[in-house]
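Why should sequence recovery work at all? Because a backbone constrains its sequence more than one might expect. Tight turns favour small or flexible residues, buried strands favour hydrophobic ones, and helices have their own preferences. The token representation captures these environments compactly. In the example below, the structure is given first.
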């Protein structure tokens, strides 16, 4: 089960609009340390004129930040979701595209961003080969993923709530496919050098409503559950109640950036 990808219909629901993604981004905004955006772009070594593609661009967070920083080179956003591509469009041209068949020529870009999305791709090795193909020699590919134990506190809340309904889940389900250690080995199948930069840490979220909104954005498949919708809604409601009783919440991130050349 750990090698199975989340069903396409679940991904369409998750990324058919910006709401769930924004709920998750709101939680990470409470991290007082360097943001993941800052860590990623620091590794890119950008001078301003590079050709950059963001694969799985989501709602355009990275593209918008590049424009805000004055990046003058060509930017392109690619996403399987038309809604996400449209949300990114104010910052850069966007195209609806599949990560396993990128609509780019060989060596077409200087920098490829592929951030917290490869674990959604059914054929990860093919997507990795495509990343290598479209980045020219001397360029860099930046991939973000999570290590085992990422947001264990949040996963624990959901699974604790599920047990009230006599349902057991897998706390590591979402990490099995592309956790940091496995990701490095997969990237080394296509790239000559893959360095891992730790982007994790622990921080406090003072508002339990932010935590509850984050939990409400997660599909049951993300923690290995296959509950029917009414039961899953009841589990989420129980998890939200646990959040509010808990109050301020400590979150542990195991995020990492893989710098591939």
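From this structural description, the recovered sequence reads:
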């Amino acid at each position: 089960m750990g090698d199975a990808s989340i069903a396409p219909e679940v991904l369409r629901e998750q990324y058919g609009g910006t709401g769930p993604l924004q709920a998750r981004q709101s939680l990470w905004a409470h991290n007082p340390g360097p943001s993941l955006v800052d860590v990623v772009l620091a590794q890119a070594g950008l001078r301003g004129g590079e050709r950059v593609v963001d694969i799985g661009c989501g709602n355009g967070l990275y593209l918008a930040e590049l424009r805000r920083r004055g990046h003058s080179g060509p930017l392109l956003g690619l996403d399987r979701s038309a809604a996400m591509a449209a949300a990114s469009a104010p910052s850069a041209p966007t195209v609806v595209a599949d990560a396993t068949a990128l609509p780019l020529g060989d060596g077409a870009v200087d920098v490829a961003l592929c951030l917290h999305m490869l674990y959604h791709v059914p054929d990860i090795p093919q997507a990795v080969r495509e990343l290598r193909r479209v980045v020219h020699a001397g360029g860099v590919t930046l991939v973000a993923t999570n290590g085992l134990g990422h947001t264990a506190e949040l996963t624990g809340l959901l699974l604790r709530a599920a047990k009230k309904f006599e349902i057991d889940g897998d706390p590591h389900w979402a990490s099995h496919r592309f956790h940091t250690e496995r990701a490095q080995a997969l990237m080394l199948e296509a790239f000559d050098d893959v360095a891992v930069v730790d982007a994790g840490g622990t921080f406090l979220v003072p508002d339990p409503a932010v935590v509850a909104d984050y939990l409400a954005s997660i599909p049951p498949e993300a923690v290995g559950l296959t509950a029917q919708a009414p039961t899953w809604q009841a589990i989420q409601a129980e998890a939200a109640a646990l959040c509010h009783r808990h109050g301020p919440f400590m979150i542990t991130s195991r995020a990492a950036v893989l710098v591939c050349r």
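A few observations help interpret the result. The first strand starts at residue 52 and ends at 55.
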